[in-house]
Predict the structure of Ketoreductase (KR) domain-containing protein.
Amino acid sequence: MPGTIIITGANGSLAIPAIEHILTKYPGYHLVLTVRNPSADADANTKRLRAVLDRHPGPANTASVRALDLADLSAVHAFADAVAAEVEAGTLPRIASIVCNAYYWNLVEAPVQTRDGLETALQVNHVAHAALVLRLLASSFAPGGRIVFLGTNATDPGANPNEKYPPVLPDDLEDLARVPERVEPGDRAGTGFYRYAVSKLAVTMFAYALNRRLEKDPDLNTVTAVTINPGNLADSRALQTNTPKSLSLAQKLVLKPLRPLLSLLDPLLRTAAAAGVDVAELATGHAHPGKRGFYTLLKESKSSEESLKVDKQEAVWKKTLAWAKVTPKNDEW
């Protein structure tokens, strides 16, 4: 078998078409698909995921849907332990890729901390994924493996129309973990989008720091990390979840029906299905094999100026290790 692909948030708008693309075009992978609620009876999105799996049965396609709550670091560490044990026992092929797809944002409520003491978007979008990746890298990855992080143009000041406050990391990174509202108390939409954007900025910066370490490690230098901005997904369920009514209505009345026309003006406006194919191509190593770095859609591109500051990348790396409760692979890391 080609190996195991782990996908978080596997019942999401982008993930489901990515999974179907892998099952159809690249059968033979063992898919470990994580969701918060694996019950098809309790979660309509998981039901849709399981329907895709049912359309691709047989020995060539092996998939398991597993529970994973990224808002609970103890659950993330337990999941990583279980996967590593299965790889060691030979019941699970070595990891070909991890797709860090799950996300959280909230544009309508005040920010809250998880039980781990971290602001929720920071933990779900960044810290939990970093913990998962770092726990499995040394023990369970196959040579030539890949880590796919999900980025966004929201990390580039002025690039996203939902931005009110520029996505710049605070001098004290601990401010990211706290929950007081930013700039204007009560500005739920502005504050929520800022927290989403800076969490994704942390993801992008962490990926650069991780790649530097992978390149220098003789045991892991064939493993690559990429960050992809998959575009602005007109049909994403994200625009219906924890969002103001104005954004939900804009999707229903403007973005979805007029997407073909609007995409002529904004090439990043696209469907979740198209984005899912791009992510699947990266995860399987068929797009840009052996390459590292930042991609917009599937084109190698430049991330935001803030994200390219090496000193801040290193600060994010060190802080992330502490937040994630992960010990580096070795002292050099």
